[in-house]
Task: structure prediction
Amino acid sequence: MADNPLKSVEAALAAMLEGITPLDGERLPCDQAAGRVLAESVTARLDVPGFDNSAMDGYALRAAEAGQVLPMIQRIAAGHPAAPLMPGGCARIFTGGEIPPGADCVVMQERTESRDTGIFIPEGIPVGDNIRRRGRDVAQGSQLLGAGLKLEAAALGQLAGQGITEVVVCKRPRVALLSTGDEIIDPGLPLAPGQIYNSNRAMLKRLLERFGAEMVMVESVPDDYAATCDILKQAAQCADVVISTGGVSVGEEDHVKAALEELGQLDLWRLAMRPGKPLALGRLPRDNGETRFVGLPGNPVSGFVGAWIFLRPLIGALLGCPALEALPRIRARTAFSTSNGIRRHYMRVALAFTEQGPVANAFRDQNSAVLSSCVEANALAVIPEQAEIAVGDEVECLWLVEA
Ligand SMILES: Nc1nc2c(c(=O)[nH]1)N[C@H]1C(S)=C(S)[C@@H](COP(=O)(O)OP(=O)(O)OC[C@H]3O[C@@H](n4cnc5c(N)ncnc54)[C@H](O)[C@@H]3O)O[C@H]1N2
Ligand code: MOO
Result:
């Protein structure tokens, strides 16, 4: 919008992500790699399955010999090698058992009858029936898993299925999380009048760890310019990303932005988003390069929304994980009405999946200081600038999933 003095979220995201490349890889045992992102793709060493095997407990035979009683001349349990099957006979076989050379189908035992002279096999068994072919799941030499994939249950199973015990994953982005404000007190300590407990830290730590970051510094910073400069310098040395909460607005006790401008560079400030308008993006120098800086507003909901919209893609880019870079979008009908001003509103909603399609239920109080609005939210409904939304209108929602 031409007369909107605030920067768009898209412009801010592009500025934040510009020049970011994934961090180096590190080799890890697979049993410590859950939730980590592959830095290198993995090639299959083996065919899976490694040999033709039975999908059922039953009998292996030549399909052409079905429709008669066949003597049972071999027994093949899973884990034991199969000898060739002589013509005119069948083999007792169990699920996962190796198909004996010569056999070309398996009949499940429920379809057979045991007779004195052998096993009666019904007619019309197709060649290949109930055989799981070698390499059907994975072919040796093919790409098993691609770089950038977050290792979750099935991928870990695929690695184990290859006998692989180590992988190269992207190093976790190191994050320094600074809570500014004289009024902010750690849970466990007594509260004096005017003070509040630090709710942002616990919330952001959890979100950042879910996104794949490692917390290397977690500090509280008083409302003091020199102290803010000191801690920013220290944080920039030990972290890939420095995140602060509070102190980015226009008050006299808001020192973060001034400290950032003094020490490094403020790339962007004041966004057309609600909540989160005073969010500040920039960079701080460190010995071998620079450290990204994200200054989240102090209001807890601004921090929550800012984390999903900015920190998730930032951590994703540092991890080389495309799935983390954009939240999945889903269209839903609103169970609420609202009218919006010049900032895009990210309303906290609980999506319900009804027979009529997804419905977005908004928490009654959408103020940026009301963290209750986030507790049961599973999506952010994106209300465009100046929009008038009536009950039942369709809006786009961002689904709050970690990857
Ligand atoms: N004159 C103006 N005042 C404000 C503006 C403005 O444009 N002009 N913007 C408002 C908006 S919007 C926001 S958002 C806030 C952001 O201010 P800051 O980022 O400077 O944050 P603080 O002032 O330090 O704190 C705001 C609020 O959040 C509480 N807070 C801070 N840290 C924590 C924490 N770790 N845990 C829980 N709560 C926290 C703090 O006590 C304040 O109540 O500025 C508006 N003002
Ligand atoms: O932009 Mo602020 O985060 O609405 O309260």
Notes: Residues 72 and 90 are 5 Å apart (CA to CA).
